[in-house]
Amino acid sequence: MCWSPPHEEARAWLIGEMRGAGLETWVDSAGNTFGATGIRALRPEMPVVLTGSHIDTVPEGGILDGALGVLAGLECIQAITETRTRHARPLVVAAWSDEEGRYGSLFGSRAFCGMLDGAKLDEMAAVDGVRLVDAMASAGFDAHRAPEARVPAGAVGAYIELHIEQGARLEEAGIPIGVVETIVGVRRARVIFVGQADHAGTTPMDRRRDAFLASADYALRVREHVVTRGGRASVTNFGVVRVHPGASNIVPGRAELVHEMRDPDVAVLERLAGETASLAREVAGKHRVGVEIQPMSATTPALCSPRIQAATEKVCATLGLATRRLYSAAGHDAQNLARVTDSGMIFIPSLGGRSHRVDEMSDSQAIERGANALLHTLLALADATA
Ligand code: HGY
Ligand code: MN
Ligand code: MN
Question: Domain holding 309: CATH number?
Fold first, then answer.
């Protein structure tokens, strides 16, 4: 969890490894950590080739989501430096802060790409109520300075991120390398049903205004709606459910869901957001409860750069690695970087498609192939011969 003591310990370890590899290091005001060859800041006079990912994880997550891209990026740059391989542009590896979205998803790369609304910082809070300003202060950062992390225009010439697919398509197709074409948009909203707390024994069933029952009805109907009326790639999830007061002998007076929807097409997401809001009102009426919908975050789907895709495919052809183009059903920092530079992603297969769970894993050959594809893509982009 970003800004926590374990995360800051991991950051310190990473900076040590970067310095050990002979890189210049810095941390920006949004908590993004950088390791660079020969430069101490990003400036448009010398556009860099940037790689990286994130070191924060989901609760009870795996060890590759994010960390693979940061450590493989560092390993590649270290190998290039140690072998004194010529490259025209500086190489930089980044660990973006709070990718997993405790504070609205892809926080660090949003700040880096100038997408952070400074006016909202004071109200930003995690689902457990911890405010961003307090979480960042606990790690020694002033949240109000996060927008200063904005990268100068033209300072990044290309961005390429290595990541696990977090799904089963590559494994099932027996393809070692995925070349990402689009990255989904993710919309999150808090949906709060308000009924009436009552005695769970003495209140007749037909007189209850049960907020949890309304929320359960809503969840089932939304899932049906998204599956039948969404796009081919639309998905939805309810990963956080809170019932109040939360005692077995009280009819729930309040139920709060965090509702997430994803799709590579923003128009589909917009349509579903409107339709599910109407559904919420319809369900609330049926259960004689109130409902409030509080939007939490909305990331925009992104198209990856054809230049980066072609560079990766050319490199993989030389390495004898089969590739497949695919969309990412997970959100990534690369979708923000697409706003400031040519941005792309390389996927490797996830065993059984497992991710966001402790047994998330890829086999070592897959990791090696992915790192090799990243290494040669970085070199191609750094020499702008791609
Ligand atoms: O949730 C996601 O899509 C990513 O793992 N942050
Ligand atoms: Mn993740
Ligand atoms: Mn990730």
Answer: 3.40.630.10
Q: 256 in ligand 1 pocket by Cβ < 6 Å?
A: no
Ligand 1, residue 58: give the atom nearest the CA: 5
Residue 344 alpha carbon to ligand 3 centre in Å: 14
Q: Quick count: other Cβ atoms within 10 Å of Cβ 285?
A: 12
Report which bound ligand comes closest to the CA of 239.
1
Q: Copy the structure tokens of residue 313.
A: 């495919």
Is 126 in contact with 135 (CB distance < 8 Å)? yes
- The CA distance from 183 to 363, in Å, is 24
The parent domain of residue 276 ranges over 185-298
**CA atoms of 158 and 222, how far apart (whole Å):** 39
- Full pLDDT tens readout for the chain, 386 residues: 999 999 999 999 999 999 999 999 999 999 999 999 989 999 999 999 999 999 999 999 999 999 999 999 999 999 999 998 888 899 999 999 999 988 888 999 999 999 999 999 999 999 889 999 999 999 999 999 999 999 999 999 999 999 999 999 999 999 999 999 999 999 999 999 999 999 999 999 999 999 999 999 999 999 999 999 999 999 999 999 999 999 999 999 999 999 999 999 999 999 999 999 999 999 999 999 999 999 999 999 999 999 999 999 999 999 999 999 999 999 999 999 999 999 999 999 999 999 999 999 999 999 999 999 999 999 999 985 44
CB 344 within 8 A of CB 316: no
Q: Report d(CA 210, CA 368) in Å as an integer.
A: 53
Index of the ligand 1 atom closest to the CA of residue 262: 3
Please give the distance, rounded to the nearest whole angstrom, from the Cα atom of residue 241 to the centre of ligand 3. Answer: 23
How many domains does one find in the chain? 2
Select from 270, 298, 326 the last residue of a domain: 298
Which domain CATH number covers 226?
A: 3.30.70.360
Ligand 1 contacts CB of residue 62 (under 6 A): no
